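Question (not urgent): is this output format expected?
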Amino acid sequence: MVSGALDTVAAGGSCYVYSVVSTNGLGVSTSSGDSTVVKVDTSAPVFTTATTTTPSGATNAGLVTITPASATDGESPITATQLYRKSALYLGGSCGVFGSAIPVSSPDLNVFADLCYTYSTVVTNASGLTANSGDGDPVRIDRTGPTVTINQAATQADPANASPVLFRVVFSEPINVASFTAADVTIGGTATGTRTVTISQLSPTDGTTFQASVSSITSTAQTGGTVIASIAVGLVSDPAGNTSAASTSTDNTVTYDTVRPTLTSINRSTGATNPTNTGPLTWTATFVEPVSGVTASNFGVATSGITGTAPSITSVATTDGSTLSTTWVITVSTTGAIGANAGSIGVNLTSATGIADAATNTLSTATLTGQTYTYDTTVPTVTVALAAASDTGSSSSDGITSAATLTYNVTFSESVTGLATGD
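Got this back:
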């Protein structure tokens, strides 16, 4: 029994009927009879599906179709369904902070580039109770294709004499990884071979950074051939379906060189005097391509007819002070060396150890004989004798003559120049 007009003990999920019993002064009671059934509903609707969209995820579409979440209510019928939308900035491949929800209808025609949207469903039952499905997965509106750079990898030697040759590929946003294949990388340059490309993803493994490895390269040129990597426009797509721009680069060329250098000559330096009686003496060693690592230990001094202090190499250097050059000047000291009439000093390659080109290919020439200087510090001797035709004595060699004009033979120990009448 309840009194008054307010039933404060009615329980949710229960049904009630009410009647009024009146009693007169004689104690006679009458009843109004039961009222209509009153059902007490305190439970909101329950969702059985989520709010979904077409398309979903990243898209470059101009509209979004929303499928409301489905809900059930065992106590009261659902009388109203409303869709809501939240938006956030879409930057750097991810969504920012979402704002407040606003009501929308499906399809949603007001979607704009570089924004993220989430959708939810709110239902109301006949009792006025509401339920919210919660936000569905974000829809990312992306209508800008990725840009891409391709450059030689930081660890890649250049020039190189071994494969694979490595290039680093970086996209401006995460891409659809399946859309990027080896066929998308164009390999140009003067190096030959099949030049096979392999693609692998690098850290942070988010679809932005990759490595293109190029193998099966050949090069027969002495100074190598080039390997140039690029990606043409429209070959790679992002998750929204936008295709990439043509690649840009700051250094996408690697020189590939597997041919070993050679030493072509060791000649007396241009303008050097030969024969000579003074030092130091210099030679120029000429290689077929620039090399480094050339030192005195690679050469030996060869002499003939030289006594006293043995000539020795005092320096081996490039003409411009660089460490990589095709020409190296070898200087030999002759201090204390005594050269006979036909003495000679030469420089020969005796060891290739340490000599290599820029790609670290080692020198293939094992030994080479260089030119020689005629080194002569010995003063010539001279003898003067009456010529046999002027000797009128008892023999042609007794030095007795009666001739009015005399002829003398002047004989030097070696060839000389500059002899004159006044001498």
